[in-house]
Design goal:
globular, 10% helix, DNA-binding, 8 strands, 8-stranded antiparallel beta sheet, mainly beta, 3-methyladenine DNA Glycosylase, Chain A
Amino acid sequence: MGAIRAEYRCLRRAELPVGTIALARYLIGKTLVHDAPEGRRSGRIVETEAYVPGDAAAHHFRGMTPRNRSMFLGRGHAYVYFIYGVWYALNVSAEAKGVGGGILLRAVEPLRGIALMQARRPGATLENLARGPGRLATAFDIDRRFDGIDLCKKGPLWLGEAVRPTGAIGASVRIGITLEAHRLQRYYERNNPFVSGPKRLNI
DNA sequence: CGGCTGATGATCT
DNA sequence: GATCATCAGCCGG
């Protein structure tokens, strides 16, 4: 484990790896921060899924639309969509400007603002607070108002450095899709209880 | 724990 | 009109 860092800077766009898969792995262990009037929420990203160019399961596969345009803004921007009539999900755009690529943030380990998260998800255990993309967005109070914002500067929502060393990273098939289901493009920190999904995928 | 299912509305065809 | 990058609740083992 090692010492936990209390202060951390935001990630610079230049240091984000180029390419969706490389960035999806890089983001494991980094910090997601939401600065709101009521206070700061932060968490360690422990699970991501890559949606690369040409992937039929990806929202950007059929080209740019009003909904998915944020995934074409160049790496390091937020793409937030509404799904199943109930949930929001947060992605990080991942390719060069004009190219569609996205990384779904599936789970974080809460660091700060836990009481704020619990207020949004009453009754949830600490492990379940932000475990799963819909729960993460709810706990962090993320919706379409953040769609398209730059995550590489300290605005209301940004990406920070890792606050402690990152553990071994595992890979598995992605969750909840039917197309391109064989791709091993879900990444997670091994042995981390804040990771979502069935046990068999978290080995 | 694992499997199943209904809820619910934006989006695109 | 179909689909959907999900979740909570319920059931059985």
